[in-house]
Amino acid sequence: MAVGDVETYYEDGVWKNKVQGNSRASDTGGTKKEAQARGRDKAIDLGVEHVIKNQDGTIGSKNTYPRSRDQHPPKG
């Protein structure tokens, strides 16, 4: 992940969002779905990639904002 990308992850029983390069989470709490929505909004505002991790820490998905910046867009 690049500095500035937004990461949604699970830590200490809580879903969190953090902008890479920052030392602390920008927001915490709620369900994974709620944290993902807040993380997506933050990534859209910043125009960066949103990385969503599973509870075990593995990367579940990545979304690039704006979509035109995606170097590997989905085919179809």
UniProtKB/TrEMBL annotation:
Pfam families: DUF2188 (PF09954). Signal peptide: none annotated. It comes from Gordonia oryzae. Residues 19-29, 55-66 have a biased composition (Polar residues). InterPro entries: DUF2188. Residues 30-53, 67-76 have a biased composition (Basic and acidic residues). This is DUF2188 domain-containing protein. It comes from the Bacteria. Residues 12-76 are annotated as: Disordered.
